[in-house]
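Example (one chain per record):
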Amino acid sequence: MKSALNVLFLSSEVYPFSKTGGLGDVAGFLPPCVKATGIDIIVTTPLYSSVNRDKYGLRKLDFRLTVPMFHWTEYAEVYLGFLPHHTPVFFIGHDGFFSRQGLYHDRNGDFGDNLKRFSFFSRASLELARHLGFRADVIHCNDWQTAITPVQLKLLYRNDPMLGSCGSLLSLHNLGYQGIFPKEKIFDTGFGWDIFKSSIIEYYDQINLLKGGIIFSDILNTVSRRYAYEIQTPEFGFSLDTLLKTRKRDLYGILNGADYTEWNPETDRFLPEKYNADSPDKKQICKRELQKHFYLNPEPNTPVIGVVSRLVDQKGFDLLASIMHRFNEHNVQFAILGTGEDWANSYFGSLPFIYPGKAGSKILYNEAYAHLVIAGSDFLLMPSRYEPCGLNQMYAMKYGTLPIVRAVGGLDDTVEDYNEHSGTGTGFKFRVFNGQELYDVIKKAIYTYLDRKEHYRRMQKKAMSRQFSWEDAASDYISLYGFAKEKSLKGWY
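Predicted structure:
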């Protein structure tokens, strides 16, 4: 029996094969949940040199894919692997583009041919669908790396019998990254100067891939409801807010799900003691272990504020650095895990020497430590300037670790602010991005823990009951696939 919809899903990274951030998680978890409903979905992604072909049992297919670009032709090998629910993942292999260290950059910065690499990948994905005879109803693109796909679809495949009536959905995971390149590289897109106009891809005399995708996609979505609203404002729109307002009827917010197979205190392989909402006292064992590894004073009744993050300005750590000295007088400890900008690595790396026993840090990313910080802390701090969705606050709540967040994007959607009168909520929120606001909300969390223990326990239990399901997200995405298909059948112009 033919499924109701056929979906071609493009992503520049797919967990567990490749990942640099939340996009990889979405691409790894969403398609299998869609597939489980009976929809026929296939995934395409680049075959980076870091993808372990043997570990994941990838099989090389017995054809060579021809990919027409502007005045030249590229060729690709294709490998096949699978996600859960037997969801096929087709890997586009091209040694010249993808056989290098890093997905988008190395220690010297962004790769200079990223425009050509990902324009090629997008076009190759469409050609693969044609080669396979996969008659897609909807193409689901993600972020700037595949944002040129709707442009290709509408301008190059309009009369194609296989893809001509295909709808498109573009997911905007982070508007801060738009795929902006010098106009002199226009031919790397696989097009000529005819698309370098403000109605297509031109942006302040540069190429902007995300802009083209926003204009040409049938439907758009972000990864939280709040972020869908925010990106239509100057503060969060990164100069695309006016354009996004013109598409607001086609712009939706769908919250990401959480991976509770990896992030569950009842089954977590990294913890010294497993626990659940009925045994929160066992969390204290994780706290002791955290204090030991981060060289914090072994004080069970002192609240620990954890950080697991990239230490960059976008995440608000310049704000935290400006007020850290004020907590030397408070009964609180900090456990900080992550790497980021040079100034942040230097500053946060020095905290154990400045505040011995009160502040511990590890300037690295380590999966085992990430689980320990989230399990062993009493609070998890996420003071972001902007946050499209965020996952760590979801994981933290499952572990009974109350988030302290700025009320933006997915942080605002997922965390219920503490109500001092009723003692309800699942975390603590501040709204205005300044040091005093951050200081005040952290102080409020500290004294709730110390002086209103019954409120803290009530919030902890409620937080641990929250579920952010990929199945729910999949249901919402399936609705958007229907909208995109319906809109495409009405015609683009």
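Caption: The domain at 280-465 is CATH 3.40.50.2000 (Rossmann fold).
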